[in-house]
Write a structure and sequence with these properties.
The complex is a heterodimer.
Chain A lengths: L6 E6 L2 E6 L5 H11 L10 E4 L2 E7 L2 E6 L4 H11 L6 E4 L4 E7 L3 H6 L16 E6 L2 E9 L3 E7 L3 H12 L12
Antiparallel strand pairs in A: 1-7, 2-5, 2-6, 3-4, 4-5, 7-10, 8-9, 9-10
Helix pairs in contact in A: 1-2
Chain B lengths: L2 E4 L3 E4 L4 E5 L13 H9 L7 E7 L7 E7 L5 E5 L12
Antiparallel strand pairs in B: 1-2, 3-4, 4-5, 5-6
Classes of the chains: A alpha+beta, B mainly beta.
Bound molecules: zinc ion (ZN).
């Protein structure tokens, strides 16, 4: 554990495109790679990333393509074009969600107050993602860095609620001296 | 709280799932040909066993996939999970 200060960071909305298709179809994988620069990961709960773009596993035939550099409509239409004629679907959900980051030494303690996932490094490692419940609302959790930094994708409609919940959950750790306090 | 082993995501809390009732109920191909009794049987009558029960579950707040669960309704033990469309494992298979 690092002694990095624990914090909640609002990251606002982010380009997010849901794509459904068959990862066993090489044409689908090639088209995805051409449009996004990334191949959809097939192992449950894994991600592929390149710089500030990533593909997150949502299900055996469903992924979330996220980008911090490209506008949603541009990326979505590029994917739509690449996947034309294939049995696939592309949906721009960029405006549907907001992203929060929980970072620092006690990030796992904060999330453990409202999420049953085992986020211990031996069970949930760097680059992994999982859909679950946090404080009883649906959440997509993605470990962005080993610091650790967990990014949470939640529905915009419950964004304020999640923010308030996270603020309360982190309070006891704000003035703690990292991982070394007894 | 049940710990349900999703075939894709692994063991997760019951609160992430929704139960879809008894598995392997076949929708009649021509409902208009059924009399009220047969239609009512399809809609409402379930085996409701004390013991092994094959059920449909969906991982609502996870990967959103449907799958079948063989659960013991007495012990609450989950004996196995298997994919939609597969035949239920027979007694003694576990
Ligand atoms: Zn699942």
């Amino acid at each position: 554990m690092s002694g990095e200060r624990t914090a909640i960071v609002e990251r606002g909305s982010r380009t997010s495109i849901v794509v459904r298709g068959d990862a066993r179809d090489v044409r689908f994988v090639r088209a995805m790679a051409a449009a996004t620069g990334l191949e959809p990961p097939v192992a449950p709960g894994t991600t592929a990333h390149h710089l500030l773009d990533a593909v997150l596993w949502l299900g055996p035939d469903e992924w979330l393509v996220v980008s911090e550099t490209q506008p949603g409509h541009a990326l979505a239409s590029r994917m739509q074009q690449a996947l034309q004629g294939l049995h696939a679907a592309v949906i721009d959900v960029s405006d549907a969600r907001v992203v929060y980051a929980v970072t620092g030494a006690h990030a796992r303690d904060v999330l453990a107050k409202g999420c049953a996932l085992d986020l211990h490094p031996r069970a949930f490692s760097l680059g992994q993602c999982a859909s679950s419940l946090l404080a009883e609302v649906p959440v997509l959790i993605h470990q962005r860095s080993a610091e650790p930094c967990f990014e949470l994708y939640v529905a915009r409609s419950v964004g304020e609620y999640v923010r308030a919940w996270l603020r309360a959950a982190v309070r006891e750790h704000l003035h703690a001296s990292g991982g070394s306090s007894p | 709280m049940l710990l349900i082993p999703c075939p894709w995501c692994g063991p997760r809390d019951e609160t992430e799932f929704t139960c879809g009732g008894e598995a392997h109920i076949v929708t009649p191909r021509a409902p208009e040909d059924l009399d009220d009794e047969a239609w009512g049987e399809f809609l409402y009558l379930r085996t409701n066993p004390k013991g092994r029960c094959a059920e449909r579950w969906v991982h609502t707040h996870g990967c959103r996939r449907w799958f079948n669960v063989l659960r013991d309704t007495v012990t609450e033990r989950i004996l196995t999970v298997y994919e939609v469309g597969a035949r239920p494992p027979q007694a003694g298979d576990d």
